[in-house]
């Protein structure tokens, strides 16, 4: 995580230097390098660094790279009429394979009638919804929100032993996660034009996160947030249903 943040800083530093020199009249790169394509290439490069799910980075690199090549060299031109459906196909295939457990090595999705699943497998695409989990040994899972949002309530759940990983992918969407205030959460998310916030508050007034108490169960957040957000909250416990 620290190395990834360092790489993000380096990328931003180089972009800033290039634009500053250009604005001062010192052209070290062709003008084509200062278009929106380079922003997509920079985002894609950052997302590929140290990220297990490479699909978002590849998509951003492909869009920016192909468009830049069209401007720089005699490259076989690909019109947007072909490019954007191809992007949708890649995103759709990635979502399907990811939630089928094929490209992540994860477990298969639990049946919808499972009363208290130990893993989340949630997809919000141009929509959203609320789900509640009362697992006695929550192990994490995977969540995807694209142009949509999910509201997940884990207030009555208990973490399983050790480190429990929740992998998320957010693009132009959002995820709200309600968890007990005493849970230890390790944030290992990659964010580009998006953000993560932990708004859990104890009665003594401080946020509980990444305390370093390794003997206690940990919820580890991994994945990517693009043009969206993920928020952690805590609520009073809900009465359990019999």
From TrEMBL:
Transmembrane segments annotated in the record for this chain: 5-21, 33-50, 57-73, 79-100
Domain of life: Bacteria
Residues in LiaF transmembrane domain copies: 8-98
Pfam families: LiaF-TM
Protein's UniProt keywords contain Transmembrane: yes
Record keywords, A-Z: Membrane, Transmembrane, Transmembrane helix
Keyword set includes GTP-binding: no
Name of this protein: LiaF transmembrane domain-containing protein
The organism of origin for this protein: Mangrovivirga cuniculi
Record lineage: Bacteria, Pseudomonadati, Bacteroidota, Cytophagia, Cytophagales
